[in-house]
Amino acid sequence: MEPVPETADLSAYLRADDVIDHGHPQVRRTAALLRSGASNPYEYAKAAFVHVRDEVPHSFDSGDDRVSWRASDVLSTRNGICYAKSHALAALLRAEGIPAGLCYQRLADGGGTVLHGLVALLLPGSGRWSRQDPRGNKPGVDARFRLDREQLAFAVRPECGELDYPAVYAAPPAQVLAALRGSADRAELAARLPAGLE
Predict the structure, then answer these.
(1) What residue stretches are annotated with the Transglutaminase-like domain (predicted)?
(2) Edge to edge, what strands does the sheet with 130-132 contain?
(3) Exposure string (b/e) for 143-176, b if CB count within 10 Å is 16 or more?
(4) What is the pLDDT of residue 182?
(5) How do residues 101-114 score in pLDDT, each as one tens digit?
(6) Residue in 170, 198, 188 with CA at minimum distance from that of residue 59
(7) Which entry of 12, 14, 57, 111 is 20 to 30 Å from 94 by CA?
(8) Cα(first)–Cα(last) distance of the chain, in Å?
């Protein structure tokens, strides 16, 4: 699927805000550590992806009851669901001048659907946005950093009502933030997860 930026203004995908707070010391420290082992933007982006995927457990996998949503909090607590982990990866990418935005999938979940969060990035010289999924691997989930083709945590099954939303958002949609900010713990968050972007 070809991601489509919601705005042609590339600066929107480099901006810091209350969620993607890439000016925060925690984000800057993590970015500097990752940058020290990378010789070019591709290596840095891959290192940032692997760091968020592997070093920040998905709270539904780990059983962590804390709900984080701000990128700096995700990196400092090493905890978050897909949305929060996407915020952290976007912040690390933007911290090094790599345009990054947020993408979503609608996935089947029991008898309904649930919104899943991803990141899209635009590496210098690539000429195209590339979706990446820092959710975190586990048995049956093998997301990888790839530019030649997508290797996301979940492949969309249209026959199950699943779909890829093409938009690349510069900031999280309101329903994503409402679920994260309005939940006191993981159980409450699970009950508040958006079913989609409709």
Answers:
(1) 31-134
(2) 4-5, 163-169, 100-109, 112-121, 130-132
(3) bbbeeeebebbbebeeeeebbbbbbbbbbbbebb
(4) 96
(5) 999 999 999 889 99
(6) 188
(7) 57
(8) 19
Helical spans, DSSP H, in 3-81 = 25-36, 41-55, 59-62, 71-77
Q: Which residues have C-beta within 8 Å of that of residue 76, sequence separation ≥ 6?
A: 26
| Contact indicator for 153, 143 with CB cutoff of 8 Å | yes
Residue 120 in tokens: 């899209």
> Pairing relation of β-strands 130-132 and 163-169?
unpaired
Residue type, 101: G
Q: How many CA atoms lie within 13 A of 62 on its CB side?
A: 19
Domain residue extents for the chain: 4-192
- pLDDT tens figures, 2-36: 999 999 999 999 999 999 999 999 999 999 999 99
Q: Which fold has domain 4-192?
A: C8orf32 fold (3.10.620)
